[in-house]
Amino acid sequence: MGPVHRVAVGPVKLGYRQFGHGPDLLMITGDTAPMSLWMTYLLEPLSRSFRVTIFDNRGVGYSTDDRSQRLSVPLMARDTVRLIRALGLRHATVVGWSMGGEIGLTMAERYPRAFARLVTTGGDAGSRHTIPPPPGLIGALSDPNNTEAALALLFPPSAEGQAAQQRFIAGYLAVPQEPVSNITLKRQARAENAFLRYPRVWNALDRISMPVLVTNGELDQGVPMRNAQNLARRIPRARLSIYAGAAHGMMFQDAERFAAQVARFAGR
């Protein structure tokens, strides 16, 4: 995946990696997830069609934080747009997973000229219209040591899902992981909770003019499938793709299909 570089975006420095050749593809991770969570078996097929940029959100992995600023999804969206400009990414396709999808939708609402198109993967637009996960799941996932709950969120109990889970675990263990501090965990949890009460992005969905590919796992409990269906109904140029038999880690369960779908969406 190449070496880690850092670039200043406002008061913080974001760690990032770049690899591959072709048009620009920027990938935004989910809640507290470092860029190392993007599996090589997903990145490799993407890098055959794109110059891929992955990065750590502020306070995660190789990126610094500024705790004098209240962390929010709009703040991380601004960070990401500043990263796009600092790296000179032109007409980029942005892929946002989970909270990364929320960041991507916020970017599309606030900075529509900063990039060309958006792919959301298990993302939502916040507000009271978002269908939340089951309360018990939220409690289990709030414990960073509960890896069993995290894996159950990503992969279903089917034979295919469990095979994908084992592949994911092997990929995870093969790459050094930077621990996330308890302070960052709390700051991102507050940012996520605030976004779920924030109506601005939802209210602006029908004014998003760029092409948007909305993807979701059929069995996703973290971001139930109805959220994706609602996004696709409200965004004028949206396409909807539901991955049958997959959960919140759908792009890891069917990496080749996801990479090919993103490439087609971007006209590759």
TrEMBL record:
It comes from Capillimicrobium parvum. Keywords: Hydrolase. InterPro entries: AB_hydrolase (IPR050471), AB_hydrolase_1 (IPR000073), AB_hydrolase_fold (IPR029058). Signal peptide: none annotated. The keyword Endoplasmic reticulum does not apply. Its EC number is 3.5.1.-. It holds the Pfam family Abhydrolase_1. Residues 28-131 form the AB hydrolase-1 domain. It comes from the Bacteria. Coiled coil: none annotated. One of its GO terms (molecular function) is hydrolase activity. This is Aminoacrylate hydrolase RutD.
